[in-house]
Specification:
Elements (H helix, E strand, L loop, with lengths): L1 H8 L3 H13 L3 H13 L7 H13 L3 H13 L7 H13 L3 H13 L7 H13 L3 H13 L7 H13 L3 H13 L7 H13 L3 H9 L4
């Protein structure tokens, strides 16, 4: 399996595909999950969501939480199956029960956006916090957004900044932009153009388009 993963990460897809197939036939659960990803994203094969789903289900039946989460994504996006937020919620919940941080975050997104369930910001916050605690950096930023906007919690710019900084320090460019936005807007503190530019530049360097636009609006190249 190690050689297969190495080939996959090096984007030597034809080699990876063959090795994953052999390992999956021999019962390797991680290989089944990787095959699902390759079919779902069209790496070395034509995109085939039915094949992706089949391999994800094989892996999920063996308690692979990443495969469970990927099944949830297929239902969320309607890729190869009818779009179903209830199925997505179910599969994300199964993956989350095995400690999958990304799935916890996705449950929070469904509650935040009211997809297949009434909007519930308190539940969204609970799930984002769980995901953040399990290491999902996107969820860390999402907690900051809820504090900034007062969704499910009272508005708290200090808490918002704290969560944004945590995510930004971990490399999340959206959080870097959000730190800059708080500095520029003076939310919860005195506005500081210099600090805003510093953070917008960090985000822009990481490829964040809103940060590039913010720098332009401030007349900074």
């Amino acid at each position: 399996m190690a050689r297969a993963v190495q080939a996959y990460e090096a984007r030597d897809d034809s080699v990876a595909l063959g090795l994953f197939r052999r390992a999956a036939v021999m019962g390797d659960v991680d290989a089944m999950m990787y095959l699902g990803v390759m079919y779902g994203t069209g790496r070395s094969v034509d995109v085939d969501y039915a094949a992706a789903m089949a391999w994800f289900r094989h892996a999920a039946d063996a308690d692979n939480s990443q495969a469970m989460g990927n099944i949830g994504l297929l239902y969320l996006q309607g890729s190869g199956v009818p779009k179903s937020y209830s199925e997505a919620m179910s599969w994300f919940g199964k993956a989350a029960s095995f400690g999958n941080a990304e799935a916890m975050f996705n449950v929070g997104v469904l509650y935040r956006d009211g997809l297949g369930t009434p909007v519930n910001y308190a539940e969204a916050m609970r799930w984002f916090r769980r995901a953040a605690g399990a290491g999902d950096i996107t969820a860390v930023n999402a907690v900051g957004v809820l504090y900034q906007q007062g969704l499910g919690v009272p508005v708290d710019y200090a808490e918002s900044m704290s969560w944004y900084r945590r995510a930004a320090d971990a490399g999340n460019d959206t959080a870097m932009y959000n730190v800059g936005l708080l500095w520029e807007s003076g939310l919860g503190m005195a506005a500081d153009r210099y600090q805003a530019i510093v953070w917008y530049r960090k985000a822009a360097t990481a490829g964040n388009e809103p940060a590039k636009a913010a720098l332009k609006s401030l007349g900074v190249e």
